[in-house]
Amino acid sequence: MEIIDKAIKRGQTNLSEYESKRLLADYGIPVTREALVGNSESLMEAIKKIGFPVVLKGCSPDIAHKTEKGLIHVDIRNENEALAAFKAIIAGMNGTENSVLVQEMIRGKRELVAGLIRDPQFGPCVMFGLGGIFTEVLNDVCFRVAPLEEFDAQEMMQEIKGHKILGAVRGMEAVDLEMLADILITIGKIGMENEKIGEIDINPLIITGNKPVAVDALIVLGSSRA
Amino acid sequence: MAHPNHFLQRFFNPASVAIVGATNNHLKMNFRVLQNLIHLGYAGKIYPVNPNVGEILGIKTFARLQDIPGSIDLAVIAVSAHKVPGIIRECGRKGVENIVVISGGFSEGGEGGRALQKEMTALIRENRIRTLGPNTLSPVNTANNFVISFNPVKKLNRGNLSFAFQSGFYEPMINWMFSHLGISKMLDMGNKMDINELDALEYFAQDPDTGIIAMHIESLHGNARKFLNLIKSVSKEKPVIILKVGRTPAGSKAAASHTGTIANENDAVFDGAIRQAGAIRAQNLEDFFDLVKAFQFCRLPQGNRLAVITLSGGEGVMATDACETYGLKQARIGDNTRGKLKIIFPQWEIPLNPFDAGVCMEFHLSDLTVFFNSLLAIPEDEGVDCTIMQMLPWTFNETLINPDSSEDMSGAMKALYIQWLLSMKKSGKPFALWCTSSGSDEVGLIEQIEAGRIPVFRSSERAVKAFSAMNRYREKNSLGIGPLT
Predict the structure, then answer these.
(1) Is residue A93 situated within a structural domain?
(2) Cβ contact, residue pair A122, B271, below 8 Å
(3) A120 shares its domain with A96
(4) Are A117 and A10 members of one domain?
(5) How far apart are CA B375 and CA B369, in angstroms?
(6) Structural domain span for residue A134
(7) What is the dihedral of CA A123, A129, A132, A137, to 10 degrees?
(8) Cβ contact (<8 Å) for B228 and A152?
(9) Span B64-87, pLDDT tens digits
(10) Which residues of A touch B266 (CB under 8 A)?
(11) Chain B residues with CB-CB distance to A under 8 A?
(12) What is the CA radius of gyration of chain A?
C-alpha cells in the first residue's frame, strides 16, 4: 500500500495515528472523522467541517503515549479552547509541521481493543478484548489466527470474560456484533495482505450508540517481535 | 485392516527390533525394555546388542549391530549420550532407517549436549535415518504388544486412544493408564530432534486404530499453521485433546531446559489458535485424563441439558453451580418421567433436577430394584442430554445386610449395582458418576465400573467440565452422535 511504502521511504518504523486510520478506513473500518492541521486557519476550517466538540491530538509517527505527554486535549467546545490547545500541543511537540490532528469527539462508555500481532509461530493473529485502561489492568483479550471466518469472530466476542459489555446493559444498546465481527475479520485480512505490517493496535475502539469506531490506532511496521 | 502409508508405521509395527544397550542387570532401567517385549509377547524379532554378554533373558545377544544376521526395522538406543553418534554411524552402515534414542543429555544438557545433538542431526540426515527422541521412552503399540518402557508393564488394554507426549511423565503411571483406558498407541517425542508433533498428529489422523488423539505439548517444533490445519481437518472425525504446558513465563523456561527448545510462546495465542482449529484444550493433567476418559467412554452429548442425581442435597447444589459455570443447562424432565419417579420419592419431595436420591433412600426405600429402575427414566427423558450421578458409598453395601441372616449378599449387591449402572447407559446418552472419596473400597469399585466404560470423576464439577467440553466439541465440528468407540 502507498501509505506503507511512503512511510518506509521516510524511515518511519510505524505509521502516525492519522496514517494508521487512513489505512484502516481504506479497508472499511470505521474511524473518527478527522483532519491534520498545521496552522490556526486550517484548524478553524477543519473544526467547521467536523463540528464541536472536538479532540485535538499531537500527531507524529514518533510519539507514543500521547496522554502521558499532555498531547491530547478532549471535549473542546469553542474556538478559544481550540486555539489554546493547538498552541500547547505545538509547543509540546517541538513544532513539527502539519502535526495536530483534529477529530470528532466520540462519546461512548464502552471501550474495546482490536488489533493484530505477528506471532513467531502462528504468524498474523487477531486480538480482541476490553479496551482503554482495562486492556492493561484486566488483560481480558483473546486471539485467533488470521484469516478469520465469521464464526471465529463471533466466538472471540463470546470468549472474553467481559463479553456481557457487548449486550444491552445499563440502558445502552446491544453492540452491532456483525459490524464488530467485520472489523475483526478485516484486521486479519490486512495482516494477511500486508507483510510489512508488524502490529495493529486499535485502542480504544469505542462503541457509540451501537456502532464501534476506531478512536485511536497505531500501525507498527516491520516484524514486531524479535 | 488398512494401515497408513506413513513413515511412523515402522516405529509402531517393526518386524524386527534391536535393543542397543540391552543388559542382564535387572537393577538397570534398560533391563525392563527387553523384559517388557518378552513378557508382553511382542511377535517380531528381538536382537539385544551388548558386547559383554552372550545372552539376555534367554535371547541371543550380539556384540555389535553389524553382527545381526537379518535386517533391522527399528533400533532402540539406550547407551550414554556420547556413545550415541557412534551407534548412529553403525546404524547407517547396517542400513537401519528408523531409530529411537532413549538416552538423554543432548539439547537439554548444556553446551556439550547441544553440540552432541547437532552432530547427531547431521548424522541422521546424512544416513537418511528417521529418529524418535532423543530423551524418549516409547513407542507403544498395543495391537502387536510392542512396548518400549522402563516400567514393568503388567497388562495391555486395547482401545482407540492414542497419545503423543513431549515427556515421559506418563511412564510412572503407565500401568494405571492401562487399567483405566483403552489404548492404541503412545509416542513420546522427547527432544523432537527429528520427529515432532506434526508427524505424530499426521500419523494418528491416518491410523484406523486411533479414534481419539491426546497430545501433551511443551513447545511446537513443526510448522504451527500446518499443525492447526491438520487439527481442523482431523477434528471432524477424531477429537484432538491437547495438554499444553509451559503456559507461564517460568513454566515456558522450564520447558526449554527440559527438552532443549526455545521458549517463545504466547499462551493466549496458542489457546485461541487451537480452539479455533477445533481442538479441546486440557487445563492440567487431571483435566487431560478426565477428558480422554469421557471421550473414550461416552458418546457425544447432543445438547447441553444435564440431569444430576445426587445422594446429598449439598452435592446437588455444587453440581448445579458447576453446570452453570461450565455452560451446561439444568435439564427439565417431562411429566411422564416425573410420574415414574414419584414412586420412589417421599410424598413431600417433588422430583426435580438435581434429583436427591438420598432422600428416597433415607425415607422411602423398600425395594432397591424399584428404586434403580425408576431412576432409569431420567436419562431416557427427551429433555435430558446427559446425566451424572453420585456413586453409592460402599458402606451402603453393609446397611443392606440382614444381621439375622447367614446369607452373604455383598457380592450380589455389587453385581446388581454395576448391572444397573450399565442399563443407565442404554439410552446412548453420556452417563457418568462422581465419587469424592477414595477409600480402598471405592477404588476397587471404581475400577470395576470403569471397566464397564462408565467414567467415574473425582467431583461433580469435573464430570460437568468433561461433558461440557464434549458438547462444545460436537457443536464446533457440527457432529452427530457418532459411533460408540
Answers:
(1) yes
(2) no
(3) no
(4) yes
(5) 10
(6) 5-14+108-221
(7) -100
(8) no
(9) 999 999 999 999 999 999 999 999
(10) 117, 119, 143
(11) 220, 224-225, 228, 264-266, 268-273, 275-276
(12) 18
